[in-house]
Inverse folding.
């Protein structure tokens, strides 16, 4: 197992605040330091589901808290946060990556993924919804579409897969959309990389984000998001303002 050095965010000044909140649209650049991510009640955390883990933030950066060394079903206790409120079935969400120190990949079996979620419902011991994940491991790039269907011990089905996709890096925009009645599409920097048509589509739930870590510990802050936007199809996806004067070491 390869353990990587932590990193520092220095010179975080003039960060903008959370963008406007209205029903069916949201945008943020994570200006607060929170564990779990909350932003004045706008987010539902993974631990609401009791068996999953939370997303957390420092100013201008959101990342996961999954230990990375769990065994059994707990290996799949992704960090997750989904928005509150009532959202229509048509949903689109996107996030900008910040990846200061991803694992180099190869034979060490370390998996680091960022996730966009759509149509997600979180209740105790139960999560239902769609996930699009992107590897940030440079030598192991891939994108997957998955569907969560209940308890942690219910396997997450991989529905769409794109292998040999370049791993995510700082500045990339990762996006997923659901177009009724059943069409899921995933994009990197505006280019579609995979899709799936669900024969039994979900109809309710919220957009959100997540992170997955397996095979290493203490490296959650090596990859994450610097901004996030979502819409339920009634308005265009809002564009969050970028943090100012951000340096990564």
């Amino acid at each position: 197992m390869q353990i990587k050095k932590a990193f520092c965010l220095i010179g975080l000044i003039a960060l903008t605040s959370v963008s406007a909140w209205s029903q069916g649209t949201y945008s943020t650049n994570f200006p607060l330091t929170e564990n779990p991510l909350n932003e004045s009640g706008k987010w539902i955390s993974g631990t609401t589901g009791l068996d999953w883990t939370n997303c957390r933030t420092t100013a201008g950066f959101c990342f996961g808290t999954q230990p990375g060394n769990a065994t059994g079903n707990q290996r799949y206790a992704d960090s997750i946060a989904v928005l509150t409120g009532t959202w229509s079935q048509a949903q689109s969400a996107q996030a900008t990556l910040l990846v200061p120190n991803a694992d180099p990949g190869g034979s060490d079996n370390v998996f680091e993924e960022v996730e966009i979620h759509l149509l997600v419902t979180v209740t105790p011991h139960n999560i239902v919804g769609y996930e699009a994940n992107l590897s940030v491991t440079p030598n192991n790039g891939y994108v997957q579409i998955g569907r969560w269907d209940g308890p942690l011990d219910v396997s997450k089905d991989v529905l769409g897969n794109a292998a040999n996709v370049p791993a995510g890096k700082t500045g990339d925009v990762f996006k997923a959309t659901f177009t009724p009645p059943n069409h899921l599409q995933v994009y990197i920097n505006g280019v579609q990389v995979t899709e799936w048509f669900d024969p039994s589509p979900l109809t309710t739930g919220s957009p959100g984000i997540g992170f997955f870590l397996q095979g290493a510990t203490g490296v959650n802050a090596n990859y994450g998001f610097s901004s996030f936007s979502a819409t339920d199809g009634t308005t265009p996806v809002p564009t969050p303002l970028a943090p100012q004067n951000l340096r990564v070491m």
Observations:
- The CA atoms of residues 58 and 71 lie 28 Å apart.
- Residues 1-21, 240-249 have pLDDT under 50 and may be disordered.
- The chain has one domain: 28-238.
- The chain is about 0% helix and 45% strand.
